[in-house]
Design brief:
270 residues; mainly alpha; two-stranded antiparallel ribbon; 11 helices; 77% helix
Length: 270
């Protein structure tokens, strides 16, 4: 696809530049993944906060469902208004995936035909011309796990795919409240997608270049750390706001208590 050519050339150039410092094909892909995830961090931030707000709003959602249980149209309007008020985007978790899809296809093309997209004068191009299978943890990153014939040699590839599935599942459940059952159809649909996508990535990883599977795993681990940091910072901010509100309430109550004491003293004097 011609539309992917600029993406593939850009990734090939960046990959060759990182390789100059790492001299490892695998670690170059890992660092490339981190760079891309840092660039799309604003999308990840919005997705994580939107998902967390969705979980926090479950009590409000249940109230709206009871209030408009006989009128789906009014329920949808009320839900849309609440989502807008609380800054919730039910489809927010899909957006980072859609943004990364051109990058996946471009990286696939680079790994499939590196001599075409990696600069000829680069160290990576020279290394690939000498050895077409640069190993990373005993894995050839240019071939797919399905191309490995010996089952013993497949073990690291299978472990890699398993780690992709496990980290993806953990990532989708990381900020969900396990104790609450979600009755919201939209939220249930998003949770179902969150459970199906890791398994889907496990299946397609079997036929994709292993370098792309390394990209998936690194991205999952990086986003797990991102989500943990975002949730921690948001919880701190929420606690500070709650403390300020409590302090303001106490300040408002003190004058009332002081006035009531003064009135009591006046009554006693009389």
């Amino acid at each position: 696809m011609a539309i992917l050519e600029p993406f593939a050339l850009g990734i090939g150039l960046l990959l060759s530049y990182v390789y100059d410092y790492t001299t490892s094909y695998g670690y170059s892909i890992v660092i490339l993944t981190i760079i891309i995830n840092v660039i799309i961090f604003p999308l990840t931030l919005r997705q994580t906060r939107s998902t967390k707000r969705m979980q926090d709003a479950q009590s409000d959602i249940k109230k709206l469902q009871k209030q408009h249980k006989d009128n789906k149209e009014e329920l949808n309007k009320a839900m849309a208004a609440m989502y807008k008020e609380k800054g919730i985007n039910p489809l927010g978790c899909i957006l980072p995936l859609l943004v990364q899809m051109p990058i996946w296809f471009a990286l696939f093309r680079v790994l499939q035909n590196p001599q075409r997209f990696i600069p000829d004068s680069s160290n990576l191009s020279n290394s690939l011309s000498v050895s077409t299978n640069l190993k990373f943890f005993n894995m050839d990153l240019q071939i797919s796990p399905s191309e490995v014939l010996e089952w013993v040699e497949r073990i690291p590839y299978l472990v890699l795919i398993l780690l992709v599935v496990v980290t993806a599942l953990y990532q989708t459940t990381q900020i969900q409240k396990k104790s609450n059952k979600n009755d919201n159809p939209q939220a249930q649909q998003m949770q179902m997608i969150g459970k199906v996508m890791p398994i889907f990535f496990g299946f397609i990883s079997w036929t994709l270049p292993t370098g792309l599977v390394v990209y998936f795993l690194t991205g999952n681990i990086f986003r797990i750390g991102q989500q943990a940091l975002i949730v921690k910072l948001d919880d701190k901010e929420t606690n500070k706001k709650e403390q300020k509100n409590e302090e303001n309430e106490e300040k408002q109550q003190k004058p009332v208590q002081e006035d009531s004491r003064k009135n009591r003293k006046k009554r006693r004097r009389k």
